[in-house]
Amino acid sequence: MKKIIMLFAGLLILLTGCSIGTKWNNPIPNDEFLIIGHRGASAYEPENTIPSFELAKNLGSDYIELDVHLTKDDKLVIMHDKDVKRTTESKGKIKNHTLAELKELTADEDKDGKVAASAQKEAYDIPTLQEVLAQMTDETRFVIELKDPDEYDGIEEKLVSMMNDYGLIEKDKKGYPKAVIHSFDEESLQKVHRLNKDIPLLQLISFDDGEEAKMTSKELTKLQTYAIGVGVSYEALNAEFVSAMHQANIIVFAYTVDDREDAVKLQAMGVNGIHTNKPDLLTGTE
Ligand code: G3P
Ligand code: CA
């Protein structure tokens, strides 16, 4: 009889696919290695533009990452820096420009040899979040970064409202959240959490060069009150950290990984996904 009970218990563990007491409890399944197109497919197209997002989608990205800011007239626009200097022909802070003024600029300054054909100027303007959401099909999932949110009063409310308008606060047919928000700014993430507890949030964390990823149990307990995951600079990641996060039902995304060998190592480590400027990193021929 004892043998039969042990056999039954063993079978139960095998069938559930995990040891008793460690059921995965996170909106993002823990059985796939996700490719997140960082600022789109920004190794190949000007970052944070619609052509970059379209290419990222066509290259098979599971999620598309983009950075949001607020204009002087309170419109959510997509750009990485809070100043337009690096990626356009002009200069000055986004928050000091109206949307109409930003729309006069071209988001394809040739800083990395990725300049778009000037004939396609319109396709390479600074997109609003609304334009991106309206143009991309239902199947696209987004990782939206609240970038420098302390610069913009009310940006969290505006973002949550737009996510509601576009049905992003729900899961897709495959069971994945249509959108998650990440940020280095904990206060801003906490604010989003207070506004809507159904939006999955990831805390971005950077570690110094040579430093290993770590988190105290106090920090982890706090993280669990508002976030479902962390985004960590990939060089700092190690298997122990990833395993500790998974034990706590926290997913781990790594940023920003453009080398195939690094990607393979991170996958073997159990990392849930990578931000990459090359969404074809693991499927391409390079
Ligand atoms: O991929 C994580 C990343 O988005 C945070 O860094 O500077 O590229 O926005 P950054
Ligand atoms: Ca970002």
UniProtKB/TrEMBL annotation:
Gene3D superfamilies recorded: Phosphatidylinositol (PI) phosphodiesterase
InterPro entries: GP_PDE_dom, PLC-like_Pdiesterase_TIM-brl
PROSITE patterns: GP_PDE, PROKAR_LIPOPROTEIN
Residue ranges annotated for the GP-PDE domain, each copy included: 33-286
Matches recorded under PANTHER family: GLYCEROPHOSPHODIESTER PHOSPHODIESTERASE, GLYCEROPHOSPHORYL DIESTER PHOSPHODIESTERASE
Protein's UniProt name: Glycerophosphodiester phosphodiesterase
Species annotation: Sporosarcina quadrami
